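ARCHIVE CARD
Drawer: 12
Card no.: 0347
Subject: one protein chain, sequence and derived structure
Cross-reference: see card 0346
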Amino acid sequence: MNQNTMNTKLKHQGYRFWLPLAAAIALCGLLTFGGIISYLQVIAGAQQSFNDVAYTQVRLSRLAASIAYVIICAVYLIWLLQPWQDSHQRGDAPFFSRQSTRFSALLRPAIPFLLLAWLAFPLSNDIYLYLQYGLIKLLGSNPYITPAGEVTTVLSPLLDWYQTATYGPISLMLFVASALGVSIHPILGVYLFKFFCVLIYILNAYLVWLFLRNAPARNKLTIAYLFNPYLMIAQVADAHIDVLLSTSIILLVGWLYQRRYIAAVLILVAGIFTKTLPIIWLPLVINFLIRRQQWQKLAVSAVACLMIGIAMSRTILPTWTAWQSLLNPGTSGKTARSLHHLVTLALTHLGGIEWDTAKAMAAPLATFTFLGFGLFYVWTLLKPYRQKFYSEANLVQDIGWVTLVLILFATPWIMPWYASVLLSIAVLATDAPLFCIVSLTFGLCSGVIFGAGSGDSFLSMFAAILTVCPAIAILIFRDRVLQFCRPAIDRLLLGEQDQTSVSPEVPATSAR
């Protein structure tokens, strides 16, 4: 390699690699400093921690974190929209080989970012709740019956929620394994859980790579998932159990494409026992199998699910109350970052109405949006019977749209990491460009404002607007957006070879 070629590659590395890496280092430093300081302050009995102050108001640390995140996202989007083949031929992609068939070659340049994501201390306090549930189980109690606030541990001062466990038994196994480190030091437990998150995140990217083996843009889509800054922050840096839920989502989609229906149903049930969101997909999958008259596979799946339910009822979920715990009743009546929250904030700040009165006035909106979601869900269930050709690809798209509509319109309590599950569907649903664009926008915008965004300030209003409005705007102006983005989509999906993109493992005749 001559000197000119080396200089050219280094120049592009500075743009593609070192700039986002520098921003990631800054973001990691901000989150880690704030997290460790906040932990020490809370343990010492301080009324407010560093994070409570820094990430609920307009502060320099919050602004710096957002700027670092925006820089990373900007470089990511520029890379994503450039032609894969052209960039490779220009020599500005020295870290990747377009022809490479090894996942390790795609993973290698991601290691520094994954290491930083692992080092970054979680901003959310949910990880303490995860570890608390694990400790409760280690102490011999049932976390689906015993509330987190009733068991005093070293983590008790750090808890924001005191209810029984809202995550399924599969998640609980991960919590218990991580809680073993808490006996040495709580921070060790935090980083042990984050280590599991890193491994699962890499597994998810590997599964994407496997299921995309027949897709023209296999490498670029895998890299797009692996390097997605929003996913890396939500599922590794902030260490949310959604990273494990994404595993079941990817397997569900991949096995549906492969028509491994029994395996798809079982992994769907596993997803429900990770986090209950997949429960809304079960009727869609069963309805699809009924439409396909897959009676034998339905019967086998039903028997397997019944046996799993009986086993759970006789062990970890022995009462109806324990089963109800999985539905997360603690968020009932609460709003954050959603349309519902935005309406309440608008009534308060623009209408001059008292906060409590505004909340009461906006409360019926939750019922209205839930009914709207119900109608959309029924319409989706009827689609297989209204369409002559309804393939696995159509089912995957409907799973994605149902999830998007639920989170974007019908969920009053939206946390920044909720949209991460959508991207696990979108990366495999390459024949649904509008869904992919909306999901990517929803995710990236959700991560800009660090902090919950559940307050009553103008900053909370800005967080709510930035979270939901760009995605809604794309849906409203979808025709123009698709027309504008079509060249970039074609370059992304067809840049590696000149052939029509179809969903992974789906014959071209069925992806209609």
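Annotation on reverse: Residues 86-99, 496-503, 506-512 have pLDDT under 50 and may be disordered. The radius of gyration is 23 Å.
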